[in-house]
From TrEMBL:
InterPro entries referenced in this protein's UniProt entry, alphabetically: Adenyl_kin_sub, Adenylat/UMP-CMP_kin, Adenylat_kinase_CS, Adenylate_kinase_lid-dom, ADK_active_lid_dom_sf, P-loop_NTPase
Known function: Catalyzes the reversible transfer of the terminal phosphate group between ATP and AMP. Plays an important role in cellular energy homeostasis and in adenine nucleotide metabolism.
Comment block on domains: Consists of three domains, a large central CORE domain and two small peripheral domains, NMPbind and LID, which undergo movements during catalysis. The LID domain closes over the site of phosphoryl transfer upon ATP binding. Assembling and dissambling the active center during each catalytic cycle provides an effective means to prevent ATP hydrolysis.
Record PANTHER family: NUCLEOTIDE KINASE
Name used for this protein in its record: Adenylate kinase
Residues the record lists as binding AMP: T31, R36, N57, L58, V59, G85, F86, P87, R88, Q92, R161, R172
Length: 217
């Protein structure tokens, strides 16, 4: 299956992507995680991306599209994937369509995680992620690690993302409304969008998403 996850910052895309990718046995491709891995390795791409991310802006399409396509190539796009955080504007959505068309394949669904803004702010304020693997995500209240400050999965140190401070979060929400939301209409026109109410327990949201994909129990 080829799936795109959309939703505001803090909606739970990364959290859901980890479960969905495991259940569906497809690779989880997160452009945010790819940028963070480049930042921690100090690559030129990471250095460029960091200034945009810290300001809450989108990294330019020229950089992002190539990185996402390289990762899809590596994953063998025809075998399926779950995209988390890409595409994030109309230019990226069009580039993805062109890329998939070139391979004679298409998307199966776009899952739109719907969460009220006050909940998103709470989720981001409490988020702690693992220094060794940013796909290991916790929350100071909702999803506590067994030992404070330590990742349950790999023992890595948990920290708060540089772009999770209040001003940057406000900017990221603004960018979401102006640049990312229009892709929902773009995909509605292709009849690909399924809205998933994303309040409630993590497992409940996963179940709703699996049912929407026709893989419910
Ligand atoms: P990215 O890393 O993609 O961030 P984002 O879209 O802002 O989304 P988040 O990672 O903040 O949230 P999420 O929805 O994954 O929520 P999570 O599962 O962690 O992008 C970061 C930056 O990179 C961008 O601002 C941009 O600069 C750049 N970038 C990335 N992709 C780009 C692109 N395509 N083009 C250009 N630039 C790009 O959950 C949040 C918290 O809530 C966690 O603590 C979690 O434990 C908790 N939680 C999750 N689900 C629940 C639940 N059901 N109940 C209670 N708590 C929950
Ligand atoms: Zn970890």
């Amino acid at each position: 299956m080829r799936i795109v996850l959309v939703g505001p910052p803090g909606a739970g895309k990364g959290t859901q992507a980890a479960y969905l990718a495991r259940n569906l046995e497809i690779p989880h491709i997160s452009t945010g995680d790819l940028f963070r891995a480049n930042i921690s390795q100090g690559t030129p791409l990471g250095v460029e991306a960091k200034s945009y991310m810290d300001a809450g802006n989108l990294v330019p399409d020229s950089v992002t599209i190539r990185m996402a396509e390289d990762r899809m190539e590596q994953a063998d796009a025809a075998g399926g994937f779950l995209l988390d955080g890409f595409p994030r504007n109309l230019g990226q959505a069009e580039a993805l369509d062109t890329y998939l068309k070139g391979k004679g394949i298409s998307l199966d669904a776009v899952l739109d995680l719907e969460v009220p803004e006050d909940e998103v702010v709470k989720r981001i304020a409490g988020r702690r992620i693992c220094r060794k693997n940013s796909a290991h995500v916790f929350h100071a209240e909702y999803s506590k690690p067994k030992t404070e400050g330590v990742c349950d999965v790999c023992g890595g140190e948990l920290y708060q993302r540089d772009d999770d401070h209040e001003d940057t979060v406000r900017k990221r929400l603004e960018v979401y409304h102006s640049e990312t939301e229009p892709i929902i209409d773009y995909y509605k026109a292709q009849e690909l969008v399924v809205t998933i109410p994303a309040l409630g327990k993590v497992e409940e949201v996963t179940q709703r998403a699996m049912s929407a994909l026709g893989r419910g129990e």
